[in-house]
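Example record used in the benchmark description.
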Amino acid sequence: MPSIFAVANPKGGSGKTTVAIILAGEFARHGYSAAIIDADPQGSSYQWHASSVARGVSPDGIDLVRAPDANALAQAIERLDAYDVVVIDTPGYYGEALIQSALRADLVVLPCKAHTFDASQVVRTIRNLERHAAESNLPMSQHRVLLNEYDSLDRNTRPLREVLAYFNAEGVPVCANTLYRRVTYRSMTSGYGTLYQMNDKDESIRKARYNADQVVRELLAASQGAKTDGAAA
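Model output (structure tokens):
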């Protein structure tokens, strides 16, 4: 069975596709067989993959499958059983595909910008997923909020403190590492393969790789902890 990561946030512009590509790229770099299921009708992951192939930088070690609805999503997960890692780029709205992705995931990653409105949307999503898990008599999947498009200028500001205090009060786990706002990430998602297919002589790319590596290491540890907890139960 693959490790399943569902990248979820019904709010548009949260950076789901960027996070999904970075996750898959990091695992592929370490030799794991990885696949992305693009369950978002906008097809951003698919466009990234197709554009990369067209430019001659086919994403190393990453396959991509489209899943336009919940039934196709379930079938795709079953077909990809032999992969080491499956990353689901969920739809940008709350619906059956997002719910099924989250309930089947070892870890739900919720990208969120450091703003109170975005944070409230994430908490609402988590509460809805908890309700659906209870109704299905299933445990709520492990989850982590990942602050995305983080700027060093955000550090120690009042808005950031308010967001972190809000998540803490709601009992929502937040990653210690953040994904910074970087031009490199935008370039990558425009169809230039993974971070590891970009020119490593560029310092900005090396910094992006280091940032991505730290984030994915933390998410992997969280997912492995979830599997250990499940086995113990």
